[in-house]
Amino acid sequence: MKIVLATHNEDKRTEMVAILSELPLQLLSLEDFPEIGEIIENGGSLRENALIKARTVHLLTGLYAWADDTGLEVDALDGKPGVYSARYAGENCSYADNVRKLLQDMENIPENMRSANFKTAIALVGENMELVSEGVVKGKITIKPKGVGGFGYDPVFYVLDKNKTYSEMKMTEKNQISHRGKAIQNMIKLLQSQ
Q1: Which helix (H) or strand (E) holds 61?
Q2: For residue 26, what are the β-bridge partners?
């Protein structure tokens, strides 16, 4: 089965390929379809944004399209950055810009009130098929970045039962317990039940 991973984010693509590599799938990316530019994610939820990307890529390629949208929801910030996680510090911002803004916005929040959820919604769209799965990991936001691995908010997302941030984990460990890893496992179960 050929599937197009509907993302221009190389870090996300690398993570998804690592998790999906054991399945009998031929994985393509948007790099294989340079005519597909940036897809506007204007949905009100992670689920809607994942569906927008997957539907668009399926329409343009005729192939199964797999898209995810991921958001960090911080309780003390009323669920922000949420669907705006990738552009929290503004358009064309870097991972470091987003982390800096998050830590600035939380500098007066005490350690016991820094709870957060990392969520991923995955949509798989093909001919006469739309499947959506989700994955969530509960954690908290650290006072300062820790670790060198991962990407995005990984240096400040502390996983309580692992006693470390995503950035302090090896990719294989993170993929087993992460929000994206859980969403992928849930999607695989959905596919197997079809």
Answers
A1: helix 46-61
A2: 2
Of 119, 77, 118, 84, nearest in space to 98 by CA: 84
pLDDT digits (tens, 9 = 90+) for 17-75: 888 888 888 999 999 999 998 898 899 999 999 999 999 999 999 999 999 999 999 99
Q: In one letter, which amino acid is 132?
A: V
| AA letter at 126 | G
Catalytic residue chosen out of the listed positions 11, 32, 69, 105 = 69
Q: How far apart are CA 182 and CA 111, in angstroms?
A: 27
- Please report how the helices 179-192 and 10-20 are oriented relative to each other, as an axis angle in degrees rounded to 10: 50
Whether residue 69 lies in the annotated active site: yes
Question: What is each CA distance from 59 to 64, 65, 188, in whole angstroms?
Answer: 9, 9, 22
**What amino acid occupies position 84?**
Y
Tokens linked to 21: 């590599």
| Rounded Cα–Cα distance for residues 133 and 57 (Å) | 18
Query: How far from the centroid of its chain's Cα atoms is residue 53's Cα?
Result: 13
For residue 165, give the 3-state DSSP assignment.
strand
Q: Measured between alpha carbons, how far is 32 from 67 in angstroms, rounded to an integer? A: 15
